[in-house]
Amino acid sequence: GNVGAGQTAFRVAGLDSNLSITNNNVNVAGTLLDVGGGAGNINVTRGTLPNSGPAGTLTGGGISIANHGGGLINFTDKVTVGGNGVSLTNNAGTTINFTDVDISTNGVTAFSASGVGTVNVLTGTVNATNAQAVALDGIAGNIDFASTSASFGSGSGIDLQNLSGTFNFGTGTLTNTGSGTAFNVGSGTNASGGNANISYAGAIVSNGTGAAVSIQELTGGSVTLSGNLTDGLAGAGGNIVVAGIDNGTAATVTFSGATKQISSGATDGVSLIGNPNATIGFDNGGLDITTTAGAGFGAGSGGTISISGAGNTITTTTGTALDLDGATVGAGGVIFDSVSVNGAATGVSLNNIVGGAIDLGAVDLQNITSRGVDISGTLGSTLGFDSLNIGLNAANAVGFDLNGAGLG
Q1: Is the Cβ–Cβ distance between 342 and 367 less than 8 Å?
Q2: Residue 310 in 3-state DSSP?
Q3: What is the C-alpha separation between 164 and 136, in angstroms, rounded?
Q4: Rounded distance, CA 182 to CA 304, Å?
């Protein structure tokens, strides 16, 4: 207990032989384990107290493993980590196993791993205050956290790049008060999203100007977000982006929380662009989109989309409410209870759409300056309205334009 913050309980540097660390009771404020270089197996256990007493503890202010070149590093018992969290860097050829790890930090990323290597977590929790919960880049693994939470004003709550394997982050809450993306997979760089199967059942709370979710450049696998998305800052942020799933391998993205609330102002509420290899689903209803100049829901350049369940709505002012271009509607259809705009050039635009049914419910398009409903190219889906009310506000505006459309 006399290892203070800034100090280290166990430092292993350049060791190529095997090492076992067994201690009855380790509870330190400083770094619990610092490994640099080497390639030997390292086994860390907490042991048991004398005279058949209970198991000891493994508690410390951080774990750092860097540039380890092979073998296994095993934490066979529960580890509790605070301080600087867990940092795993450039461990090519090494497999790092956590049986049970609970991480809690303030102002520091709680769990990070980058630069190849394999990381496995059987169970555990992550909680970051004023910081990122998880940052993973370029690793393989099987990670199964029971919960992951973060409150943050910069960066992302969970940021995942170039992963392979299975990554489940459990329940929890990501609360974003900044301009970064709360849940981020991949980037604009080709193939940066990886081919892992990724899931998170926690809530995503957008109280800043950043996006709720961005998923880009998947090379396979799946991303499933089954928690609620809520937007506490009207007129900015909270939007969803899925882009660049065009790398030749099928990938699936699913939003299945009962509430998916977006109030993104001049930014498009949902933007699905360039995803010919993707199947993207908004399940269980509750998709509630409000924008000003931003489009409500847009999908272009391929892919299969579906929007199902009750309570799906779009409300915009000058932004196009629904813009589908070159997409396939999935078996679940594209189903809205209501769609409304006030002041847009075009209210609803459908170009080269095939597949399942499109039902837009009660549609109210007012002060249209170009086209109320604009259908062009092939319309191979059925299109239905519970009601359709269009008000024009320009001399050459057209309420319902089928010029050049092929229906069938």
Answers
A1: yes
A2: coil
A3: 11
A4: 25
